[in-house]
Structure formats: C-alpha cells, structure tokens
Design brief:
heterodimer, A: about 325 residues, mainly alpha, MetI-like fold, 2 domains, 13 helices, globular, B: about 300 residues, 15 helices, about 70% helix, about 0% strand
C-alpha cells in the first residue's frame, strides 16, 4: 500500500471528523456572542447544515436532475418530451425486465416473509434457537457477489451422462431426473436468481419476526390453547394477526430491494437469457449504450414503482411519532 | 416492534391448567417433526456455503470434474493452491486493500456527519424540523439509481470519478438518511431528565452532545458502523459506476464479478476469491452479531 493512499485514508478518517468537531465548536463560539434568545434559533441550522448540504447535492438535486434528463435526448442536450418513455416501453428487453421485476416483487417478497416467519416460529420452540438463527442469518453479512459465486456452484450444469458437479443437478441425478441448466433455461432461471436472494434475505425477516414474536405475551397463546385451539389454529388465528404490522414493515423493505435488485443479475447472468431487471437494464443503457435519456427514463419507472412504499413509510412514521 | 395492543385475558379463571401446560411447552424436544423440519431447513441454508468452502481447498482439476461432496470421502485431496494462486495472479490482495480503503472512510464519515444532525433533530426545536426529517424518511426509499447519472457527471467535472474520493463521498451521502434516522430515534429515546439536569448544571448543547449523548449511544453507533461497513464492503454498484472499472482501484466485489465473467473454465480460483472476500464480513458479523441485529430491528428501511 503506497504512502499517498495511507495519507488520504488517514486524512479522511481523522480529518473529516476533526473538521466537523472544529466546525461545531467554532460556530458555537460565534453563536454564543448572540443574544441568549437568538442562540437556540440559529444553532440547530448549523448542526444540520453539513448533512442537509450533502443530502441536497448528492440525493435531492440528482433525483430532480434525473427526472429532467428523462425528457432529454441521448446526450442530455435537447428536449424530446416523452420520447424516451415511448422508446423504453416499446423495447422488448425493457418489458422483459419489468416483467422480471414483478416476479421478484411477488416471489421474493412472499418467500422471504414465509420462510422468515416459519423459521422464527420453529426456532422459538427449541433450546438451540440462537445457533439456528446465526446460521440462517449469516448470508446477510456477505456480498451478493460472493453469494453469486456460492450459488454458481450450486447451479453448475454438465451435459446428461457426465458426472454432475453442481449440488442441485447431482440431487436430480440421484432421483433419476435429467440435469437442468438452471441459469440458462427460461423455465428456471428467474426462479433460480430469486432463490439466491431469498437465501440471503430470509435471515433478515426471521430476526425481526422473531423479535416481534418474543413481544407477544405468552398468556395470549395459552388462553387460546386452554380454549381448545390446536397449535395450527393458534398460529393462524393469534400469532399471525399479532405479527401482521411487523410483517408489513419487513415487506416494505423487501419490496424496495426487489425493485432495486442488481448485483445478483449482473454477476450471475449479466441480464441475458431473459433474466434482466430494471436496475441492471438502467446500468446497461447508461454505460453500454451511453444513452442517458432512456437510462433516466428507466430510473423514473423504478421511482414511480417505489412511490406507494414511500408514502406508506411516511404515514407509518407520522403515526409512530403521534403515539410516541 | 409494534404489536397491536390486545387486552390480556384473565388468567384467574384457569390458573392451574395454565401453569401446568406452560413450562413443558417452551423447551420440549418432544415433537420430532418440528425439530426435523428446523434442522433440515438449517442444513439447506448452510450447504451452499459449506460446499464452496470445501471446494476452495480442492485442487482445480478435481473441482471441474467431481462434486464437492466427493472430497468428504477418502482419498482426501486438499490444497491451499487456489488461495495462493488467486492472491498472486489476480490482484486479489490489492483488491482486498482497495475494499478496506473504500469501506473505512465510508463508514467513519457518514456517522460523524449524521450524529450532529441527528442530535439537532432529536433535541433542538426549530421551524420545519418535522418536515425536513420527513424528507429524510422519504429519501430512504428513493432508489440509488435516480442519482447515478447526475452524480457521475458532477464527479467527472470535478475529477472525482475513477478514484477513491468519489466513492467515499457517494457512500457517505447515500448512508446519511439511514444514519440520521437511526441515530435520531436512539438519541430521542434517551431520558429527557438527563438533559434538564445537565442544563441546570450549566452545560450547553455542545457539552451535552460530547459528554452525555455520544457516550450513552455507543450501542447505536456500533450497530450503525457495522451496517455501514458491511454495506460499503459488499457494495458492487457504487464502485462499478464511480470507479469506472480501473483495475488498480477495484474493490473485491468488482474484481470477483470480473473474474466470474472472464474465467470460464478456470473457475476453481473463484472459490478461494469468494472466501477471501467473505472472511472479514463474517468475522465482523460473528463478533458483533448482537449490535447488527439490534440496528436491524431498530427499523431498517434502507434506500
């Protein structure tokens, strides 16, 4: 590692926080020169200024600029109205990626919620709960690139007759099925990609569901059992309704992820074989086709898809604040 | 976690039955199907990683011919060749250092910037406070994709693309809404009496922030740091876009993604590469799992 880089790294890690502390201390000296009544009116703005500045320059301004770009031509020069949207929605490749995002939205969200719920409820009843939870949760810590490599070996395909090196095809062989090219075959490839994402994210749903599960008073479940409810009835009539608010919150996070899915598709299939998704497509339009107009239009479609979730989050936040 | 308030039924009616059934139910190993299902699911979850781990110690010529499970029976043929090969020939060591170079500042900077703002949002009164915070909550859901093109052109015109500065700045800005959200909720939950008594003792906001709020918030800061570190370490998209594919700056995610696309037949090296990239996140996760989980349950709605 060269000396220049170490200097910059230490600079960023030490100097940025130091500069911020200095900024707050120095401006506070200035604020204290003001009349006592004015001080509390000025100080908060100084404290939020660095954050708001960064958020404005790197999140708010770019979002507005992208909306504007979606109405401009390829190079971002002349106004072309809705032409980019027309082009994007008339492009078979984009339509396939929209369809795939819907697969992701439904399949991924539902499977993660269901597996997370099942695992949380089952693990709650055994003494080795924490070990199970750690193992299921572990994929959450690794990158999607690493997950792609891991599952690339699970999905590995050799022609029929040759010894199968992929775990899944070897299992198929065991039951005398013919091997499947999981990532290429149109019947399985989208499901295969979604499965990898489910594998990674189930731990997330499980951990949060489990925390909510521990919050249910055991007396409630006992009362239902005493009244003669079977375990399944207790689960569906008592546990699941009580967990519904938590599951909804997890669901919103999953929906946002499903819409933004990029890494897995980029690494595992490159978007080929009809597995493309909008975020990957947008990247392709931006770098491979150098078309900022259509790229921005695809990003806009993503934003529009997120709007309901965004509104839901805002409402939930306001509700939480109201009951605080 | 929000659990709908439901009136607890009176236990007085059947106290004996409740006590009798409660204890054995929680920790019984009695129901075999339950244990079998749980263990089976756990095995399914572990096998993919385990398979790759076993493969990474197998010689290349065997990886492409037989499945990883054959290595578990004699003759045992294990080697460290894949690890030494990928570290020497594919620049993976450089990439490891690059990942660290990206992730460390990209973790420290947003937390430093966000903590001041979070304190202001939690304990100071000012006009528009709730609206500005609502804006941040909204930004949590806005896809990163909306920012890529304008930020890239901005970086290009400032000479910040194709080097670490752009990636640091981008990760910092993208991490801010979540960081402010998490810290503000934690700071806001600190007892108000504490601040009142400090104020009576003559402490100003600066003193209270450094002497009171930060020391009390170490768990929240820790969970945020773990989140941000794992997120930046594992990131592919931000690095791809703002580093512009320069191999000398590529973090491990980018290098491995390129290996996947270029290796074709020699993909035994991928096994070792993937494990080297997973080592640090797994150590962080196993050592600090509690903070990680706490940060997640505190409302993880990252954008």
């Amino acid at each position: 590692m060269d000396i220049v880089r170490i200097t910059f790294l230490v600079g960023a890690v030490v100097l940025v926080p130091a500069a911020l502390i200095a900024y707050v201390l120095v401006t506070d000296l200035g604020v204290r020169l003001l009349p006592a009544r004015t001080q509390p009116r000025i100080r908060p703005w100084l404290w939020i200024l660095p954050s708001m500045l960064a958020v404005t320059v790197f999140l708010i301004y770019p979002t507005i600029a992208t909306i504007w770009l979606s109405f401009l031509d390829k190079a971002g020069q002349t106004f072309v109205g809705l032409a980019n949207y027309g082009e994007v929605l008339g492009d078979g490749g984009v339509l396939v990626s929209i369809r795939n995002n819907i697969f992701w939205l439904v399949g991924y969200t539902a499977l993660v919620l269901v597996f997370g719920l099942i695992l949380a409820v089952l693990a709650d009843r055994v003494p080795y709960e924490s070990a199970v939870k750690s193992l299921i949760f572990m994929p959450m810590a690794i990158s999607f690139v690493a997950a792609s490599v891991i599952w690339g070996f699970m999905f590995a395909y050799q022609p029929p007759g040759a010894p199968q090196t992929g775990t899944l095809n070897a299992l198929l062989n065991l039951f005398h099925g013919s091997p499947i090219a999981w990532l290429i075959d149109h019947r399985t490839n989208n499901a295969a990609l979604i499965l990898v994402a489910v594998w990674v994210w189930t731990g997330f749903a499980m951990v949060i569901t489990s925390a909510a599960l521990k919050g249910i008073p055991p007396e409630l479940l006992e009362a239902a059992r005493v009244d003669g409810a079977t375990e399944l009835q207790v689960f569906f009539r008592v546990t699941v309704p009580l967990l519904a608010p938590t599951l909804t919150v997890i669901g919103t996070t999953l929906v946002i992820f499903a819409l933004k899915a990029f890494d897995l598709v980029y690494v595992m299939t490159g978007g080929f074989y009809d597995t493309d998704v909008m975020a990957r497509r947008m990247y392709g339009e931006m770098f491979n086709n150098q078309n900022f107009g259509t790229s921005a239009a695809i990003a806009m479609l993503l934003l529009l898809a997120v709007v309901p979730v965004l509104i839901f989050n805002l409402r939930r936040f306001q509700f939480q604040e109201a009951i605080r | 976690m929000s659990v709908a308030p439901v009136a607890a039924p009176s236990r007085a009616e059947t106290p004996i039955v409740v006590e009798a059934t409660k204890e054995p139910r929680r920790f019984t190993l009695g129901s075999l199907p339950l244990n079998l299902a749980l263990i089976l699911l756990t095995i399914i979850w572990v096998v993919p990683t385990l398979g790759l781990l076993v493969s990474s110690f197998r010689p290349g010529f065997l990886i492409s011919r037989t499945g990883w499970w054959t290595a578990l029976a004699p003759p045992f043929q294990f080697t460290l060749q894949n690890y030494s090969d990928v570290l020497q020939t594919n620049n993976l060591f450089t990439s490891f250092i690059n990942s660290l170079t990206i992730a460390i500042p990209a973790t420290v900077m947003p937390i430093a910037i966000a903590s001041f703002a979070a304190y202001a949002f939690a304990w100071m009164r000012f006009p528009l406070r709730n609206w500005l915070f609502l804006l941040l909550v909204g930004l949590l859901a806005v896809p990163l994709q909306m920012t890529l093109i304008p930020v890239l052109s901005l970086f290009k015109s400032l000479g910040l693309s194709g080097n670490f500065f752009g990636v640091w700045i981008a990760h910092t800005a993208y991490g801010l809404p979540f960081a402010i959200y998490l810290l503000r909720n934690f700071f806001g939950a600190l007892p108000g009496d504490l601040f009142e008594s400090a104020q009576i003792d003559g402490a100003g906001p600066v003193t209270m922030f450094f002497r009171l709020v930060l020391p009390l918030s170490v768990p929240a800061l820790a969970s945020l740091a773990i989140f941000q570190f794992l997120w930046t370490w594992n990131d592919l998209l931000v690095a791809l876009v703002y580093l512009g594919g320069a191999p000398q700056f590529a973090p491990m995610t980018v290098t491995i993604a390129n290996l996947v696309n270029s290796l074709g037949s020699g993909y035994e090296l991928l096994t070792a590469a993937a494990f080297i990239s997973m080592a640090l996140p797994l150590v962080v996760f196993l050592a600090l799992q509690r903070y990680f989980v706490r940060g997640m349950t505190a409302g993880a709605v990252k954008g």
